[in-house]
């Protein structure tokens, strides 16, 4: 009888160890992911009737201010301003680029940021400033 109980006890112990290992894996700290764009003003594919005063991008985590790049390009792919972007004072997860008056047309927002975890995010999107239609 004792020889039957020993293998059963081993199986119970091995099962318990396996369950503890699986449980520990479920509660481990997740690996940090790269910064992701969560909001943009103006938004992607926006059709605007007025020039935006700035481009502001929000990310899901803080970004390194010394490695943040944000540019707005016109249809000829030329930058529309020489002003450098800055991290928003009220939110370390946002980058801001002030803009002056833009002519009607399609514009591309290009950005490249380094998140605090060391990952680079490099992307772009477009928006359009429409001509104001005269009132009838």
Structure in a nutshell:
With 136 residues, the protein is α+β, with helices and mostly antiparallel strands.
Element string (H = helix, E = strand): HEEEEEEEE
| Number of beta strands | 8
Instruction: List unreliable stretches of 5+ residues.
Output: 26-31
Return the average pLDDT rounded to an integer.
Answer: 83
The chain-level structural class is alpha+beta
Radius of gyration: 26 Å
Spatially, the strands of the biggest sheet line up as 1-3-6-5
Head-to-tail CA distance between termini: 100 Å
Tell me, what's the shape? elongated
Helix residue percentage: 10-25%
Number of alpha- plus pi-helical segments: 1
Largest sheet: 4 strands, antiparallel
Share in β-strands: 25-35%
Account of the 3D structure:
The N and C termini lie far apart (100 Å). The chain has a 4-stranded antiparallel beta sheet with strand order 1-3-6-5, with no helix packed on it. It has a 4-stranded mixed beta sheet with strand order 2-8-7-4, with no helix packed on it. A hairpin with a 5-residue loop joins strand 7 (105-114) and strand 8. The protein contains 1 helix and 8 strands; from the N terminus they run αββββββββ. It is α+β, with helices and mostly antiparallel strands. It is 18% helix and 33% strand. It has one helix at residues 2-26; strands at 37-41, 47-48, 54-59, 69-73, 86-87, 94-98, 105-114, 120-129. It is elongated, with a radius of gyration of 26 Å.
């Amino acid at each position: 009888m004792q020889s039957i109980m020993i293998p059963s006890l081993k199986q119970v112990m091995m099962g318990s160890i396996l369950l503890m290992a699986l449980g520990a894996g479920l509660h481990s700290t997740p690996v940090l992911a790269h910064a992701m764009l969560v909001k943009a003003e103006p938004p992607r594919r926006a059709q605007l009737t007025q020039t935006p005063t700035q481009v502001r991008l929000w990310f899901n985590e803080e970004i390194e201010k010394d490695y943040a790049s944000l540019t707005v390009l016109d249809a000829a792919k030329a930058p529309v301003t020489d002003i450098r972007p800055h991290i928003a004072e009220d939110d370390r997860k946002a980058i801001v680029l002030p803009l002056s008056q833009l002519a009607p047309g399609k514009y591309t927002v290009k950005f490249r940021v380094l998140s605090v975890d060391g990952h680079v995010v490099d992307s772009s999107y477009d928006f359009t400033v429409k001509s104001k239609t005269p009132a009838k």
